[in-house]
Specification:
Elements: H1 5-14, E1 19-21, H2 22-27, H3 32-40, E2 44-48, E3 51-54, H4 61-72, H5 78-84, E4 95-98, E5 110-113, E6 122-125, E7 128-131, H6 133-140, H7 146-158, H8 164-176, H9 183-191, H10 202-213, E8 220-227, E9 230-238, E10 243-247, H11 256-271, E11 275-279, H12 281-286, H13 288-302
Parallel strand pairs: 4-5, 10-11
Antiparallel strand pairs: 1-3, 2-3, 6-7, 8-9, 9-10
Helix pairs in contact: 5-6, 6-8, 7-10, 10-13
Length: about 300
């Protein structure tokens, strides 16, 4: 059974967040005049030059991102790319990046220009053209605070969306081309140990940053221990003096069972000779110096060798 051109167009739009281009319609056998007739009948509406939305389909951030990409002939980038990759919320205006110098502006779309954007820097997520995670993080590094960038990098690496090696390779390639603005990523990569596991939360990143900024010894991350016959992994710790540090986010435990297990785990560690320090998000935001001071004082009390010289 053959389907009509109109049915094929509707099916195409359904697979593309409710929108289509005139070129898509023509490829499916629907002429521009037929599209305009559907506009007059209230079946579709124009949402940009050459881009149309099927009336009644949900309006979404993904739809706006794809529409912006089609209008500009460029992939989603920067904060929109972060959102597509699941690393942040969508910005108010879709953001795209184009290799074309002096490209047109598009109402409601933020257009960035990059002469060093390579084909390998672009991918698709579903049907959305978008910069790859590593490229997205490099580009957005100029627009977010250093601790925010560090949190995004750790989140992406922990979820295996990119790697420290990929980020370093991309940074080096772009920097060699004389690109200005990739300094924030370079500074961050210089401070990171690429052999260490990525932090598992933004709170953990803030604790690590407070420790690093204070010049304290670098802690071990994701350290495996066995206590009371049970296997655990400590987020941040100093095994040499049996001190472990954890970010205590409100609601992080999720269920009563996990909440109770976390307390039982800490009790087992204390009985085994470990000293705990727990910090909340407010602790790190309101006084990272105080966090570092407390960590340093505890390390000295426990006799950390690097602080007793």
């Amino acid at each position: 059974m053959t389907t009509s051109p109109e049915a094929r167009l509707l099916r195409f739009a359904a697979a593309h967040h409710g929108i289509f281009r005139l070129s898509d319609a023509a490829g499916l056998g629907v002429s521009a005049k037929q599209v305009q007739a559907r506009v007059r009948r209230g079946l579709v509406e124009r949402v940009g030059k050459g881009v149309y939305r099927v009336c009644g389909t949900p309006v979404s951030d993904a739809q706006a991102a794809l529409c912006a990409s089609w209008r500009a002939g460029a992939p989603a980038a920067q904060r929109t790319a972060l959102a597509i990759h699941g690393l942040d919320r969508f910005p108010r205006r879709p953001e795209v990046v184009t290799r074309t110098h002096g490209a047109h502006e598009f109402e409601g779309v933020r257009v960035f220009r990059s002469e060093d954007l390579a084909e390998e820097d672009v991918t698709t997520v579903g049907v959305l053209p978008v910069t790859r995670v590593a490229r997205t993080l490099l580009d957005v590094g100029r627009r977010v605070p250093p601790d925010r960038l560090e949190g995004l990098v750790h989140d992406a690496v922990h979820r295996r969306l990119t790697s420290f090696d990929e980020l370093r390779s991309l940074h080096d390639r772009v920097a060699r081309q004389g690109r200005t603005g990739c300094g924030p990523m370079g500074a961050l990569l210089q401070d990171l140990d690429p052999t260490a596991p990525a932090a598992e939360s933004f709170l953990e990143v803030r604790v690590l940053r407070a420790i690093r900024d204070a010049g304290l010894p670098e802690p071990v991350r994701q350290h495996p221990v066995v206590v009371g016959g049970e296997d655990f992994r400590l987020d941040v710790c100093y095994p040499v003096v049996h001190l472990f540090i954890e970010g205590d986010g409100f609601g992080v435990h999720g269920t009563r069972r996990s909440f109770e297990r976390d307390r039982w785990r800490q009790n087992l560690l204390v009985v085994a000779g470990w000293t705990p320090l727990r910090f909340t998000w407010r602790h790190t935001v309101g006084g990272s110096v105080a966090v570092a001071t407390m960590v340093g004082a505890t390390l000295r009390r426990l006799g950390h060798p690097d602080l007793l010289r």
